Amino acid sequence: MVFTIFPGSISTADGSALVKLGNSTVICGTVKPHSGVPNVDLPPLCSSRFRPGPPGEQAQAASQFIADVIERYCLCWVLYCDMMCIDYDGNVLDACIIALLAALKTVSKLPDVTINTETCLPEVNLEKRHELQIHRHPVGSSFGVFDKSIVIVDPTAEEESLLTAQLTVVTDEEERLCSVHKPGGSSLSGEKLQECINRAAVRQREIQKLIDKVIKSVDTPQ
Question: Could you tell me which residue ranges the Exoribonuclease phosphorolytic domain spans (predicted)?
């Protein structure tokens, strides 16, 4: 599957990235400092399967899934992270996680925070700023299941409509299992599940390497 990433695609955001995964496209923008959870938007413009109005079940489930992934790690700042799907052709969770990770890696204007030794309260220095430090790099890999035995990687929207189950596995650079998302459907054997986890670990290294390469090329003066 073709994968491309365009960091810093929203000039008014503190951090942003646009990700194309196959025919699916997701754009992510982050704004500081607010409290809240990541928000995934699946508007009608990305696919005719979505309707105008309040967020549907799939969008709400995707938002909560992304929140569960990043809340495993301790952050100094809490950011609003809005992800909008521009083109939907399946595999949207993977694209959202990649777009979020790339967007966070472009956040470069966080105020410095220190702890006052007398009051034990945090103090913010708006004159001194630094980049957001990313200590873990979770990456999702989605799989489609046919009749409990056939597993495919990166299912398209058409393939998703034929699946008996879907599975998303999130791992980090130390091959730690961060999250497994399986919204019902047919069962999957332990052997097949382990195979998916192993594939996800390999893909995590590939995606992280590509993100770091793209971010470095953007930061490096020509």
Answer: 6-106, 138-200
